[in-house]
Amino acid sequence: MVNQNLSEREHDILELLMDNQTASVADISRTLKVSPVTVRANLNSLADKGVVVRTWGGAAPAFHPEISERQRSRTEQKMRIARAAAALVQDGDTIMIEAGTTTALIARYLFGKRDIYVVTNSTLVIPYARANPALRLTLVGGEFRPSSESNVGPIALEQLERFHVRLAFVGTDGFSLLNGLSTHLVEGAEIVKKMAAQADRAILVADSSKYGKTGFVQVLPLRAVSSIVSDVELPAESSAELTEAGIDLTLV
Length: 252
Prior knowledge:
The chain has ten helices and 14 strands. By secondary structure, the chain is α/β, with parallel strands linked by helices. The strands form four sheets. The chain has a seven-stranded parallel sheet with strand order 5-4-3-8-11-13-14, with helices on both faces. The protein has a three-stranded antiparallel sheet with strand order 9-10-12, with helices on one face. Strands 1-2 form a two-stranded antiparallel sheet. Strand 4, helix 7 (126-131) and strand 5 (135-139) form a beta-alpha-beta unit.
């Protein structure tokens, strides 16, 4: 979800609002069988956490519908992938995190590590950095894209060029041996290329549903990344195909 530090009722309310942004306090009260006073208190709490925006008589999710939908998709797989990716980060490391719902979760699992320098174009990383004093976050500027919660464009690319990191964690809309990494957004493709160029190792984090899919824009050949972290639902034949091609593959 957008924010993992939510109570069970707050999660329920957020789910209702994602499904129906016109739901009122009275609607939520009836559905969850709690008092309107309780609903208002929960909505105020969600607003304080930056998850919703209060409206007259209710609230609306603070994120673009595309982000909300992606965050609700394959949540368990994404969390396992992010946890495994975060395990690759060492104390004192320098890393880049590209915008995406899976990549952003990596920051969640950096608790317990010390002095991690993070460069990102993803605003989804900010809540985790706010909660974790061990993260030293640099958010590059650029043109904000609500549908990806990211900063993109020439300014972002120019600022990324100022940094060199050990690891760059990147995502994709689709990947395969034939077409490599691909995405639906030209500007997002340029960010991935730049982060990979500024890192000793580029690591692709992507759930298995993206394997074999091809986006509008080709980004990088698959061998341009040092390794791939995906989930165990990747079909055996696909896993074998990648391994036989010499791709360093981790399935969790």
